[in-house]
Design goal:
single chain; 180 residues; mainly beta; 13 strands; 37% strand; globular
Protein backbone atom coordinates (compact mmCIF):
# COMPACT_ATOMS: atom_id res chain seq x y z
CA UNK A 1 0.00 0.00 0.00
CA UNK A 2 2.69 2.54 1.05
CA UNK A 3 3.25 5.26 -1.48
CA UNK A 4 0.22 4.75 -3.74
CA UNK A 5 -2.83 5.11 -1.52
CA UNK A 6 -4.02 5.09 2.09
CA UNK A 7 -7.44 3.98 3.31
CA UNK A 8 -9.02 6.46 5.70
CA UNK A 9 -12.23 6.39 7.72
CA UNK A 10 -15.36 8.41 7.08
CA UNK A 11 -15.80 11.41 9.33
CA UNK A 12 -18.81 13.74 9.41
CA UNK A 13 -17.44 15.91 6.56
CA UNK A 14 -16.78 12.94 4.30
CA UNK A 15 -20.18 11.44 5.04
CA UNK A 16 -21.77 14.78 4.14
CA UNK A 17 -19.81 14.85 0.85
CA UNK A 18 -20.84 11.29 0.03
CA UNK A 19 -24.51 12.03 0.67
CA UNK A 20 -24.74 15.47 -0.96
CA UNK A 21 -22.12 15.94 -3.67
CA UNK A 22 -24.20 14.77 -6.65
CA UNK A 23 -26.95 17.28 -5.85
CA UNK A 24 -24.42 20.05 -5.28
CA UNK A 25 -22.76 19.40 -8.64
CA UNK A 26 -26.20 19.67 -10.28
CA UNK A 27 -27.06 22.87 -8.40
CA UNK A 28 -23.71 24.47 -9.30
CA UNK A 29 -23.99 23.38 -12.94
CA UNK A 30 -20.72 21.43 -13.04
CA UNK A 31 -19.17 20.97 -16.48
CA UNK A 32 -19.67 17.59 -18.20
CA UNK A 33 -16.34 16.02 -19.20
CA UNK A 34 -15.46 12.61 -20.62
CA UNK A 35 -14.75 11.10 -17.18
CA UNK A 36 -17.72 12.61 -15.32
CA UNK A 37 -18.16 16.18 -14.08
CA UNK A 38 -15.75 18.94 -13.18
CA UNK A 39 -16.37 21.81 -10.78
CA UNK A 40 -13.78 24.57 -11.20
CA UNK A 41 -14.75 26.40 -8.02
CA UNK A 42 -16.50 25.47 -4.78
CA UNK A 43 -16.98 29.11 -3.77
CA UNK A 44 -20.76 29.06 -4.34
CA UNK A 45 -21.44 26.51 -1.60
CA UNK A 46 -20.65 27.45 2.00
CA UNK A 47 -20.25 23.85 3.25
CA UNK A 48 -17.80 23.03 0.43
CA UNK A 49 -15.82 26.16 1.25
CA UNK A 50 -15.73 25.16 4.92
CA UNK A 51 -14.44 21.66 4.07
CA UNK A 52 -11.96 23.05 1.53
CA UNK A 53 -10.44 25.40 4.10
CA UNK A 54 -10.47 22.87 6.94
CA UNK A 55 -8.50 20.24 4.98
CA UNK A 56 -6.53 22.57 2.66
CA UNK A 57 -8.14 21.22 -0.49
CA UNK A 58 -7.99 22.84 -3.91
CA UNK A 59 -10.86 24.83 -5.41
CA UNK A 60 -11.32 22.29 -8.23
CA UNK A 61 -13.03 18.92 -7.71
CA UNK A 62 -14.56 16.14 -9.80
CA UNK A 63 -17.17 13.45 -9.93
CA UNK A 64 -15.68 10.41 -11.67
CA UNK A 65 -18.08 8.07 -13.44
CA UNK A 66 -17.53 4.61 -14.88
CA UNK A 67 -20.41 3.21 -16.92
CA UNK A 68 -20.88 1.13 -20.09
CA UNK A 69 -19.77 4.13 -22.19
CA UNK A 70 -16.60 4.68 -20.11
CA UNK A 71 -15.37 1.42 -18.57
CA UNK A 72 -11.65 2.24 -18.73
CA UNK A 73 -9.74 5.34 -17.68
CA UNK A 74 -6.38 4.91 -19.42
CA UNK A 75 -3.07 5.10 -17.51
CA UNK A 76 -2.64 8.68 -16.32
CA UNK A 77 -1.36 10.89 -13.55
CA UNK A 78 -2.38 14.37 -12.51
CA UNK A 79 0.88 16.22 -12.92
CA UNK A 80 -0.72 18.84 -15.15
CA UNK A 81 -2.17 20.52 -12.06
CA UNK A 82 0.85 19.95 -9.83
CA UNK A 83 -1.35 17.91 -7.50
CA UNK A 84 0.25 15.19 -5.42
CA UNK A 85 -2.54 13.91 -3.17
CA UNK A 86 -6.28 13.59 -3.80
CA UNK A 87 -9.11 12.70 -1.46
CA UNK A 88 -11.20 10.02 -3.20
CA UNK A 89 -14.63 9.25 -1.75
CA UNK A 90 -16.93 6.40 -2.86
CA UNK A 91 -20.41 7.66 -3.78
CA UNK A 92 -22.26 4.74 -5.37
CA UNK A 93 -21.58 1.46 -7.14
CA UNK A 94 -18.04 1.17 -5.76
CA UNK A 95 -17.34 -2.55 -5.50
CA UNK A 96 -15.05 -5.36 -6.68
CA UNK A 97 -16.06 -4.84 -10.30
CA UNK A 98 -13.91 -1.70 -10.63
CA UNK A 99 -10.18 -1.79 -9.95
CA UNK A 100 -7.60 0.98 -9.82
CA UNK A 101 -4.15 -0.21 -10.87
CA UNK A 102 -0.94 1.66 -10.30
CA UNK A 103 1.31 1.19 -13.31
CA UNK A 104 4.82 2.01 -14.40
CA UNK A 105 5.73 2.71 -18.03
CA UNK A 106 8.29 0.30 -19.48
CA UNK A 107 11.21 2.06 -21.14
CA UNK A 108 10.73 5.38 -22.84
CA UNK A 109 7.18 6.57 -23.17
CA UNK A 110 5.17 9.36 -24.72
CA UNK A 111 2.00 11.04 -23.56
CA UNK A 112 -1.27 11.11 -25.45
CA UNK A 113 -2.76 14.44 -26.36
CA UNK A 114 -5.44 15.13 -23.81
CA UNK A 115 -7.24 18.33 -22.84
CA UNK A 116 -7.94 17.28 -19.26
CA UNK A 117 -5.81 18.02 -16.24
CA UNK A 118 -4.21 14.59 -16.50
CA UNK A 119 -1.15 13.40 -18.33
CA UNK A 120 -2.27 10.30 -20.23
CA UNK A 121 0.10 7.55 -21.33
CA UNK A 122 0.06 7.05 -25.12
CA UNK A 123 -1.99 3.91 -25.95
CA UNK A 124 0.97 2.34 -27.77
CA UNK A 125 3.23 2.53 -24.70
CA UNK A 126 3.82 -0.56 -22.62
CA UNK A 127 3.51 -0.59 -18.84
CA UNK A 128 3.57 -3.01 -15.94
CA UNK A 129 1.07 -3.15 -13.10
CA UNK A 130 2.66 -2.50 -9.70
CA UNK A 131 -0.29 -2.56 -7.33
CA UNK A 132 -4.11 -2.66 -7.30
CA UNK A 133 -6.76 -1.32 -5.00
CA UNK A 134 -10.54 -1.30 -4.98
CA UNK A 135 -12.47 1.74 -3.78
CA UNK A 136 -15.39 0.24 -1.88
CA UNK A 137 -16.55 1.31 1.54
CA UNK A 138 -14.00 3.87 2.73
CA UNK A 139 -12.46 6.98 1.24
CA UNK A 140 -8.79 6.91 0.32
CA UNK A 141 -5.94 9.33 -0.08
CA UNK A 142 -4.55 8.77 -3.56
CA UNK A 143 -1.05 9.64 -4.74
CA UNK A 144 -1.92 11.31 -8.06
CA UNK A 145 1.68 11.74 -9.09
CA UNK A 146 1.83 7.96 -9.66
CA UNK A 147 0.61 6.51 -12.97
CA UNK A 148 -2.73 4.78 -12.44
CA UNK A 149 -5.65 3.48 -14.43
CA UNK A 150 -9.22 2.49 -13.65
CA UNK A 151 -10.94 -0.50 -15.21
CA UNK A 152 -14.54 -1.60 -14.72
CA UNK A 153 -16.07 -4.89 -15.74
CA UNK A 154 -18.63 -4.81 -18.54
CA UNK A 155 -21.58 -5.35 -16.18
CA UNK A 156 -20.91 -2.11 -14.27
CA UNK A 157 -23.94 0.10 -14.82
CA UNK A 158 -22.56 3.07 -12.91
CA UNK A 159 -19.72 3.57 -10.46
CA UNK A 160 -19.41 7.06 -9.01
CA UNK A 161 -16.64 8.52 -6.87
CA UNK A 162 -15.76 12.03 -5.81
CA UNK A 163 -12.19 13.28 -6.23
CA UNK A 164 -10.97 16.41 -4.47
CA UNK A 165 -7.27 17.25 -4.81
CA UNK A 166 -5.45 18.80 -1.89
CA UNK A 167 -3.79 22.19 -2.30
CA UNK A 168 -0.51 22.07 -4.23
CA UNK A 169 1.67 22.45 -1.12
CA UNK A 170 0.31 19.15 0.35
CA UNK A 171 2.86 16.68 -0.99
CA UNK A 172 2.41 13.51 1.08
CA UNK A 173 -0.19 11.62 3.09
CA UNK A 174 1.15 12.83 6.46
CA UNK A 175 0.45 16.47 5.55
CA UNK A 176 -3.29 15.87 4.96
CA UNK A 177 -4.37 15.78 8.60
CA UNK A 178 -6.12 12.42 8.07
CA UNK A 179 -5.13 9.29 9.96
CA UNK A 180 -5.28 5.67 8.90
Amino acid sequence: MGIYYKDIDFNSDLLWLRDNIRNIFTELDAAKVDFGYSLRSVQNNNKLVEIKEKYELSDHCYILISNPEKLTHDPHHHGAENVSITLLTPISGCDNRTVTSFVEPIGEYTNATDSRTSTVLHPNCEYKVIEHFILKDNPVLLNNSQWHMIESEEDVEERVSFAWPFANHIENFDETGFTW
